[in-house]
Every structure is written in C-alpha cells, then in structure tokens.
Amino acid sequence: MTAEWVSSPVPAEPAEAELMRRVAAGEEAAFRLLAERHTPALLRFTDRMLRNRAEAEEVAQEVLFRLWRQAARFDPDRARLGTWLHAIAWRLCLDRLRRRGADLPLDAAAEAADAAPSPLEASSRRADLAALETHLAALPHRQRAALTLFYHQEMEGPEAAAALRLDLRAFWSLLRRGRAALRARMQGG
User: Fold this and answer.
1) Structural domain of residue 148, as residue ranges?
2) Which of 7, 129, 148, 173 is the most buried (most CB within 10 A)?
3) Alpha helices, DSSP H only, in 28-167?
C-alpha cells in the first residue's frame, strides 16, 4: 500500500506590482509587507553610503514614507520596485552628502565574520575590512554608489544603472572607474 501525500498548494506571495496597487489604495498590510521585504537592503545601502547608522535609518524611513505617499506613481513597466526604492534612497543620500560637504569618519567597527576565526584571523580580517571601507569612503559618491549597488547589494547592471539614473553604458564606465580608483587607493597609489 502506497501512501499518497496530499499537499495543499502554498499560497504565492503577492507580486510587488499588486502590493503597490494595494498600497496606493491605502492598504497598510500591503505596505508593511513591502517594508519588511525592502528595509534590510535599503538599510545596507544607506548605511554604506552615509556611514552613519542613525542617518541611514532616517533615510530608509523617508524612502518608505515616500513609498506610502507616492505608491500610485510607481510604474512596474518602467522599473522593479527595488530599483525604484534604491533610486529614491540614492537621491536622498546624495542630498545629505552634499549638505554635509564631506563624509563622516568611518566607524572603526568592522563587520563580524561569518565563521568563528582565530583571534589573529579575526584581527586581520577586521583590519582588511576597515581598510577597504576607508578606501571606499574616499571615492566620489557616484563611484561608491555604483560599487555598493553592484557588489554589495548584488544588483544587476541594468538595475543599478536605473537606480542611479544612468544609461547602462555610463554605469559600466562609472563602475570601471570606481574599481580602478579603489584598486589604486588600496595599492597605495
């Protein structure tokens, strides 16, 4: 006798375009779901750009506030929701960086290691990460944003280009210049 497994279909997550339509209609539950999906990536991006956790959180909150207020303006045929939100975050970060005039100093704490390395390995890794962050912070804002979106946020080139409001060719050029500048800084040149 064979046992047959009866499985009930798992309800699919609502598509982001549908959620945005519901947010535009004022549905708070749809907004909360989108906020839960996108806040971690927005915080990573804004924190890396602004290098100040409190400011990064403020910008991420402003992005979510704009998502709520401007949901009806979102066009899923023009961009993915994550791209649209990162474009808003980029402009808000750029405004703050311009007002600031210069970047804030890098916080000395490095990211925690995934595995439990030896104390010597952990110290070396923290020093390497701190050096990388210091060199990344010294790059022009646009180069830092391109590198962060492409490598840290793992956005595809077209999506990162859209977030920065660049055509794809200009984005690849900016990314190439950013990599070269970072490489030169790290090699001491």
Assistant:
1) 116-189
2) 148
3) 28-50, 53-69, 81-100, 119-137, 141-147, 157-163
**End-to-end CA gap in the chain:** 74
Q: Which residue has the higher pLDDT, 118 or 142?
A: 142
Closest Cα partner for 14 from 76, 86, 62, 64?
Answer: 76
Give yes or no: residues 123 and 96 share one domain: no
Residue 174 lies in a domain: yes
The Cα 75–Cα 20 span in angstroms is 9
pLDDT digits (tens, 9 = 90+) for 24-59: 999 999 999 999 999 999 999 999 889 899 999 999
pLDDT score of 4 more than 90: no
For position 157, which CATH number holds?
Answer: 1.10.10.10
Single pTM value for the model: 0.60
Residues 122, 94, single domain; the answer is no
Say which DSSP state 154 is in: -
